[in-house]
Structures are given as structure tokens and as C-alpha cells.
Amino acid sequence: LPTPPARLPYVPHVPPMALLGKVTATTFALERPCCVFNGHADVSDTVWLVVAFANASATFRNPLSLADVPPYKQLPTAHSYMTLGTAAASYSCSAPSPPVLRVGGDTACRDQGRQDPCNGPLPSPGPYRVKFLLMGCRGPKAETCWSEPILLRRAASPSTINPVPTRRGSAVVVIASILASLGAVLVTTVLGALGAKMWGSLCHQDLGTNAFIRRSYRTHHIPPALPQPLPLSSGYNPPGLCCSVLQPPAPC
Question: Transmembrane region positions (predicted)?
């Protein structure tokens, strides 16, 4: 009887970090199992990924040789397949490699045969369970635990899409109307204030110019000239002038 493979405590899982397309309708990403097979793998060994429907993972039997590896095209009938056969050295601690694996990412291998297992798109949402299996020239050598069930996204059926936009509730309509009215009032107030300020500035300029142009120049009032008194002559006294003493003429 073949020696049963070593059971490794590693559990495959979808990476926790944010990743574009981490789970889609036909694919999902797995964290790469680095340093998991150290001490069990030789240079010539290969690590495989086993993909099975969640309800069929308990009945899956490891293949005894590469000729018994279940291919992708038997998934609908066998409910499991093996893919991503990779040299064990690629999963060593020092190997430079991408941090994730993409399951179901090869759309060009739908019709390939048993001799060339492929990584084709998954045909249904699942759920699926996966595990890594280390195989040597004499059969399986080590395996990881099965993952938790992985459910893919479901594509929406065209018949379930409503082409008519959903009507908004009355409360939303009332709130939107109030906000629109307040916005209109605010805009009107601001425009009115700006218009009044500009109009006042123009009026001040007009008043200053017109006041200068229309202002009449008025001369100072000059009273009419009074009659000058006649010069005094000898022997004549103007009326109203009284002389108390008349001086005799000086002798010649």
C-alpha cells in the first residue's frame, strides 16, 4: 500500500487585502502557499491545486500518479479537477513569485484533454473548496487542509433588471424641492446684493460729475457806488455843515 501523504496544517484562503477582481463570476484569487512544503519536497516534485465542489470535497481521492490527475473538463461529472501544476521550488521561501494565484483565469483551455490539465473558468458560482497536493514520481507526498467554501459572484439575469428607474419616495422629493428652493433664494439674494452695490457705485460717480457741471458760479454782491462829496471851496459851505468861527482872510 502507498504511504499516505503528510497532512500539513496550512489552510488555503482568499487573500484578505483589497484586490481588483478578487472574486468574480468565474474566477477567484488564492494566497500563494510560500514556505508550506519545505522539508517535504524534492527538486522533481510538483505542487497541484485540487478544486472541488464543496459538497464533493469529502469524497475526493488523491490520484496515485500523474496519469490519474482529473482534468478540468470532467468537473461537471466528477465534481473535481486538478490544475496549476507547478514545480515545488516555485513555492520555496526564497523564490520570487507573485503573492496570489488566479483560479479559473485561462479562457483558452476549455477543450484541452487529460494530458494537458488547464485552469479554465469555473462554470457555476459553486461554492468550491480547494487544497494543495504535493506529488512526486511515486505519488502524493503531502497535502494541505481543505479551504473554507468559496462562493463566486452571481451574474444578474437580464430579465431581473428593471429598465424603469426606481421612483424616489415622497420625503426625498420634498427634501430635494426644499433644498432647490433655498439654493434659488440664496443665489437671488447674492445677485441682488451685488447689483445694488454696483448701482450705488455708479450713482455716486454720476452725482459727482453732474454737480460739478451744473454748479453755477455766483459772483460776490457789490453794492452800488455812492456819490462822492464835492471838494470844498472858499466861501462855500455845503448844506448841513456849520462853522462856529469864520477865520478872516490872511493879510497880503
Answer: 171-194
* pTM score: 0.61
3-state secondary structure of 6: strand
| DSSP letter, residue 211 | H
Higher pLDDT, 182 or 18: 18
The Cα 196–Cα 178 span in angstroms is 27
Q: Give the CA dihedral 63, 69, 75, 76, nearest 10 degrees.
A: -80
Q: How far is CA 20 from CA 46, 110, 113, in A?
A: 29, 24, 31
Main-chain phi, psi angles of 52, to 5 degrees: -145, 155
Segments making up each domain of the chain, as ranges: 6-153
> Considering only the top CATH level, what class is 6-153?
mainly beta
Q: Which three cell numbers stand for residue 33?
A: 502557499
> Which tens digit of pLDDT belongs to each residue from 194-217?
776 765 665 555 545 444 444 444
Q: What pLDDT was estimated at residue 240?
A: 44
The dihedral sign for the CA sequence 52, 112, 69, 30: negative
- Find the length of the chain: 252
Dmax (CA) of the chain: 190
Per-residue 3-state assignment (H helix, E strand, C coil) for 144-209:
CCCCCCECCCCCCCHHHCCCCCCCCCHHHHHHHHHHHHHHHHHHHHHHHHHHHHHHHHHHHHHHHH
